[in-house]
From TrEMBL:
CDD domains: NAT_SF. Keywords: Acyltransferase, Transferase. The keyword Transferase applies. InterPro entries: Acyl_CoA_acyltransferase, Bact_Acetyltransf, GNAT_dom. This is GNAT family N-acetyltransferase. GO terms for molecular function: acyltransferase activity, transferring groups other than amino-acyl groups. It comes from Nocardia terrae. Residues 124-265 form the N-acetyltransferase domain. The lineage of its organism: Bacteria, Bacillati, Actinomycetota, Actinomycetes, Mycobacteriales.
C-alpha cells in the first residue's frame, strides 16, 4: 500500500512519520522508532485514535498531523484525566472533551457491599459466566443496543467495548446474563484487561428495568469473585449516568480516577 510521510525537525534529528499499514503510523528519527499512532473502529462506528510518542511535544504533533491529514472525522480518543501533559497534546491538535467516565474500585465482600441478602426478581434467573447460550446472548445484546441507540444513543454507554465489527459479543464466556422463562433480559460483561477484573457493561432490557435485575447480576458477579479470593473489581461509569453511579456507589465502590473521551469534529 502507499505510505504517507511527513518529515520535520525535533531538536537536531529529522523525524519521518510513515503510514505503515491501513490503521498504523510510525515515527522514526536517527533510524530509531520514536513513536506510533493507531486507529480502531468501535462496534458503534466511532473511530478512535491513540498516539504513543517518546517525545510528546515534538513527535506527538508530527504523528497527529499525519493522521489527521488522512482520516475522516469525527475522531475520538481516550485520555486519563490526570495525565495533563497528554491531554494538552490532544487539545493542541484540536480535540475537545466530549464526556467523562469515573473509574471505580468495587469491593467484592458481601459484608462490605451489602449484597448478601440480594435475590433476583421473581421469575428471573442469573446465569453464570460461561454458561449462557450463545444465540440468545447475542439476541439480548443486540436488542439492548438497539433500545439504547433509539434513545440516548449507544455512544453514551461505556467507552470500553472489546472487539470490532457488527459482532459485539466477542467472547460469550465473559458474560453473566439474567433470564426469564422465555428469553434473556439482561447481561453483564466481566473481563480482565489489567490485574483486576473489570465490569465492562451491565445492561437490562427496557421492559425489565427498575426491578433489581442489574443489582442481582452485580451481586452474582461480585459474590463469585469473592469466592475465588478476589477482593476488588474495577468498573467505569459515565459521569451523567446517574442510575449506574448509584448502583456502584450503593455497594461501596470508591471513585479513584477519571478518563476523558475527546473528540475532533
Amino acid at each position: 500500500m502507499n505510505t504517507s510521510d511527513i518529515t520535520s525537525r525535533a531538536g537536531e534529528s529529522a523525524v519521518r512519520v510513515t503510514r505503515v499499514a491501513l490503521t498504523q503510523w510510525q515515527a522514526v528519527a536517527d533510524d530509531l522508532v520514536v513513536g506510533h499512532g493507531d486507529l480502531s473502529t468501535r462496534p458503534d462506528g466511532r473511530l478512535f485514535v491513540s498516539i504513543d510518542a517518546w517525545d510528546r511535544d515534538a513527535v506527538f504533533d508530527r504523528i497527529a498531523e499525519a493522521i489527521l491529514a488522512k482520516v475522516r472525522r469525527p475522531l475520538h480518543t481516550v485520555v486519563d484525566e490526570g495525565d495533563t501533559h497528554l491531554l494538552s497534546c490532544w487539545e493542541r491538535a484540536g480535540f475537545t472533551v466530549a464526556r467523562r467516565e469515573w473509574e471505580y474500585l468495587v469491593p467484592t465482600d458481601p459484608k462490605l457491599t451489602g449484597l448478601h441478602a440480594v435475590r433476583p426478581p421473581s421469575g428471573i434467573t442469573i446465569v453464570s459466566a460461561g454458561r449462557a447460550a450463545e444465540h440468545p446472548l447475542r439476541e439480548v445484546d443486540r436488542a439492548i443496543r438497539d433500545e439504547v441507540g433509539a434513545s440516548v444513543g449507544w455512544q453514551e454507554m461505556p467507552v470500553e467495548i472489546l472487539g470490532g465489527g457488527a459482532d459485539t459479543v466477542v467472547d460469550p464466556s465473559k458474560y453473566v446474563v439474567a433470564a426469564d422463562s422465555q428469553r434473556y433480559v439482561g447481561l453483564a460483561r466481566v473481563v480482565r484487561v489489567t490485574r483486576l477484573p473489570r465490569i465492562g457493561l451491565i445492561a437490562v432490557r427496557a421492559d425489565h428495568r427498575r426491578r433489581g435485575t442489574a443489582t442481582a447480576m452485580l451481586s452474582h458477579i461480585l459474590g463469585g469473585l469473592h469466592e475465588r479470593g478476589i477482593t476488588t473489581a474495577a468498573a467505569e461509569v459515565k459521569e451523567s449516568n446517574t442510575p449506574a453511579t448509584a448502583l456502584f456507589e450503593g455497594v461501596g465502590a470508591r471513585r479513584v480516577n477519571s478518563n476523558l473521551e475527546l473528540v475532533l469534529r
